[in-house]
Write a structure and sequence with these properties.
The protein is mostly helical. It has one domain. 60% of the residues lie in helices and 1% in strands. Strands 1-2 form a two-stranded parallel ribbon. It is globular. The two termini are 29 Å apart.
């Protein structure tokens, strides 16, 4: 059953007009900003220094531990701030530069090819729609949607899921991507098997990751040490990545709407994005810099092809329009967002859990 949205609303027309006016008045480019190139250099320098320090200079655990944590944080930062914009064609006006930035994910062990279908199509088109948004799927060990089956183990998921978040990158890079190559398909989204250069990039990325994660370190360190610090690095990466995305969608303030029997959603696409998404830590410049503006998740969902550096200003436009049209617009502090996600996990651990539904008033 194909999911469809009603025709675009006046709300969408208003925010698009407001964003167009912002760029006309400021004269700023929507993408290709010098700040992004400088930020990219900073992120990759952080990554390189952390890796070199961990592999070549860490001979004790108390030196290796902070370097492994730093490496995991640097990898997450590149994912948030470089690969993510590149994957959405929001980094540059040039297609080749966008693709090059998106390939950072392959270098880190993932697959930009399968990420495109999982994130850009399945998640961005159908956020928080159970069965269509693959980001809601964490397997039988977790329940993020009130429409998923409940298991007795879920009563404790608000405690153990944080640990499992840390294992996600290991699963993605060493298991899921290979499974997707054998049997493509993400939820209700059809995925063609990669061909040509997409195949080359997939295998080249895996070879690059395995070489730097295992082959090179094993020349210098025992197997146990390499395995330990690989897991620590991936755990940091996984917890940070998962938490940032969960704080925007799997919280009490977000809606989990479903289509009717004919597959039609109640609200138009733009309204749906606001109802299913929550901003957090707006105004915190450090958080905004590190997570690539993904704390302005509402704005990112509405304007994914615009560089994240513009999101704080765009947020003002979107919030005003949402208030005007009576559309609930939510924003949490970092601490409030973490607590809300914890409470959401606890609520979903109960068999008869339902979502809180907020609907436009006008």
């Amino acid at each position: 059953m194909a999911i469809t949205f009603p025709p675009s609303s006046q709300f969408r027309a208003d925010i698009e007009a407001g964003v167009d006016a912002y760029f006309e008045q400021t004269g700023l480019p929507r993408r290709g900003l010098l700040r992004m190139y400088l930020k990219t250099l900073t992120m990759f320098a952080w990554l390189g220094l952390s890796y070199v320090g961990l592999v070549f200079f860490a001979h004790t655990w108390y030196v290796a531990l902070p370097l492994a944590v730093s490496l995991g944080l640097a990898m997450a930062g590149i994912g948030f701030s470089v690969q993510h914009d590149g994957g959405h064609n929001a980094y540059s006006e040039r297609r080749l530069i966008n693709r090059s930035m998106a390939w950072a994910l392959d270098m880190l062990g993932g697959s930009s090819y399968f990420w495109h279908y999982k994130h850009n199509i399945a998640h961005h088109t159908f956020p928080n729609i159970t069965g269509a948004d693959d980001d809601l799927v964490v397997g039988a060990v977790g329940r993020l949607s009130p429409y998923d089956r409940s298991h007795p183990l879920h009563r404790f998921q608000q405690i153990y899921l944080w640990f499992l978040y840390g294992l996600l990158p290991i699963r993605w890079t060493l298991i899921d991507d290979f499974h997707s190559m054998i049997d493509p398909g993400i939820g209700q989204t059809k995925v063609p098997r990669p061909r040509g250069w997409d195949q080359v990039r997939f295998w080249a990325g895996k070879a690059f990751m395995l070489s730097f994660a295992f082959v090179l370190p094993l020349w210098l360190h025992p197997v146990a040490a390499v395995a330990l610090w690989y897991v620590v690095t991936m755990m940091v990466l996984g917890v940070v990545l998962a938490t940032v995305f969960q704080l925007a969608h799997c919280v009490e303030e977000a809606n989990f709407p479903m289509p009717n029997e004919s597959g039609k959603m109640e609200h138009d696409w733009a309204t749906h994005q606001v109802l299913t998404t929550v901003d957090f830590s707006r105004g915190n410049q450090l958080v905004t810099w590190y997570v690539g503006g993904l704390n302005y998740q509402i704005e990112h969902h509405l304007f994914p092809h615009i560089c994240h550096i513009h999101y704080p200003k765009i947020a003002e436009i979107v919030e005003r329009a949402a208030r005007k049209h009576g559309i609930p617009y939510h924003c949490n502090s970092s601490w409030a967002a973490l607590r809300s996600h914890y409470r959401w996990l606890r609520r979903m651990g109960k068999p008869n859990a339902v979502a809180t539904v907020a609907v436009p008033t006008a």
